[in-house]
Hints:
The protein is 21% helix and 31% strand. The chain has helices at 37-40, 66-72, 78-84, 89-95, 98-108, 122-129, 168-173, 184-190, 296-304; strands at residues 3-10, 21-28, 148-156, 159-167, 197-208, 213-221, 226-235, 238-240, 245-251, 265-274, 279-288. The chain has a five-stranded antiparallel beta sheet with strand order 5-11-10-9-8. A four-stranded antiparallel beta sheet has the order 4-3-6-7. The protein has a two-stranded antiparallel ribbon with strand order 1-2. Strand 10 and strand 11 (279-288) form a beta hairpin.
Amino acid sequence: xxxxxxxxxxxxxxxxxxxxxxxxxxxxxxxxxxxxxxxxxxxxxxxxxxxxxxxxxxxxxxxxxxxxxxxxxxxxxxxxxxxxxxxxxxxxxxxxxxxxxxxxxxxxxxxxxxxxxxxxxxxxxxxxxxxxxxxxxxxxxxxxxxxxxxxxxxxxxxxxxxxxxxxxxxxxxxxxxxxxxxxxxxxxxxxxxxxxxxxxxxxxxxxxxxxxxxxxxxxxxxxxxxxxxxxxxxxxxxxxxxxxxxxxxxxxxxxxxxxxxxxxxxxxxxxxxxxxxxxxxxxxxxxxxxxxxxxxxxxxxxxxxxxxx
Length: 309
């Protein structure tokens, strides 16, 4: 961006007095004045792209009496007052008065002005706690799916009908070939960006649908040689006919190091196709933690916090 600078040029043959000076505006490649710390913080306030160019500063200094600015500033909100501090030195010095920030804080948090903290700095208070919250990304988990083995057992009326030890990587790979005829809602789910832990049941199980199907899931982590219970003989007592799946769940048990984490469930879905009036053909099992974790990183952090023994 080019900026306008005001210079004086002496007219030949005339004395160099102010009245004899001819003002000229010329274009310069020089940048605007150095950014203040307030200016640098605009991005964190969601004000990207709203900077004030130097050409807008010309003539602003002392254009308004201090009394006018001091009457207007208490009526502004915090973001507007931040912008005012960028206009010129006069505005910035006046806007530093903590009285204006106290007016803003009294509207945002009325109770804090009734019994303010000792040595309260209202400008700092507002700028600290009114910034838009940034999205914090989880660090890489210590646990990986390579470290995990899942032991899945399923019973029908007390008789074992499925038993398999599955590596975490196999469960993460999901279905290699979805059968024809599965509902569109399952197809959409399989194509979602969520982390899906799914096991293909092969050969497929043909069983009567009823409340007698139960499942257990244990997990072993090879990095510490410890075990954790994820699901303990839970019953598939909810059937979603539209999605052709039955659901069982168990509340996870977390390590005593995380005493404030609770009420997070592990869900196991039984994926099937109808083969008769009361007969289903199971083609897959899905494990998920949709109460709290959907991405791969979130699931691994959640599993890492379990009560491993």
